[in-house]
Amino acid sequence: MGGVVHTIFINMVPVVKTYQRNNFFMQKTMTQLPEIKLVGITCRTNNAHQFESDPSTNKIAATVQKYFHNALAEKILQRKNPGTTYCVYTNYESDYTGDYTYFIGEAVSSVEKVSEGFETLTIPAQHYSKFTNHPGPMPAVCIDMWQNIWAMTPSDLSGERAYIADFEVYDERSVDHNNVTLDIYIGIRK
Fold first, then answer.
1. Where are the alpha helices (DSSP H) in the chain?
2. What percentage of the chain reaches a pLDDT higher than 70?
């Protein structure tokens, strides 16, 4: 990875690791989450197109713009945590270099009743390496986090990536777009 790793120990068990690379910091913690049910919208894309400014090729930017400009979150039924947005990378063709489905939406208590135009996604229970950035401007903080994650070895991640579902969580810490803190969860095989 080429960065500096600081580890905090509690009862001789590593709890939090802080990664520093090129003046960018993020903390990693290991966690396990139960199944998460989501409702939102999707697109199929790959990372080769995500750094382009043309909306016809940058499908994630176009999908995010559609979601927020049309206030789609307000139309999701049975929202668990209104205002907390999940951006999920799933249905991987291979790994982070291949095609995948991008999903943006919110957690719901049930997927039984879904408004027209929305899709459902259930993320199965799994183990994660959870990364949290130091506050910074969007989209730079998100891009920096992913570039650092892509450069990590399985040892840095605390295991092999599962490529089932990885996701970003934007909550009240993300309201100020110039001072965003977000979490990225990377599914790990156990």
1. 59-69, 140-150, 154-157
2. 83
Q: Of 124, 107, 122, 126, which is closest to residue 31 (Cα–Cα)?
A: 126
Query: For the segment 36-91, what is each residue's pLDDT rounded down to a tens digit?
Result: 999 999 999 988 766 666 666 789 989 999 999 999 999 999 999 999 999 999 99
Q: Which domains does the chain have, with CATH numbers?
A: 4-188 (3.20.80.10)
Beta pairing class for 4-10 and 13-21: antiparallel
Tokens of 137: 């401007």
Record the tokens describing residue 161, joined without a space: 């990536």
Burial 60-74 (b: 16+ CB within 10 A, else e): bbebbeebeeeebbe
In eight-state DSSP terms, residue 148 is: H
Quick one: pLDDT band at residue 16, thresholds 50, 70, 90? low
Distance CA 27, CA 18 (A): 4
CA 184-189-190 angle, to 5 degrees, is 120
Give the 3-state secondary structure percentages of the chain, helix then strand then coil, rounded to 5: 20, 40, 40
Mean pLDDT value of segment 130-159: 92
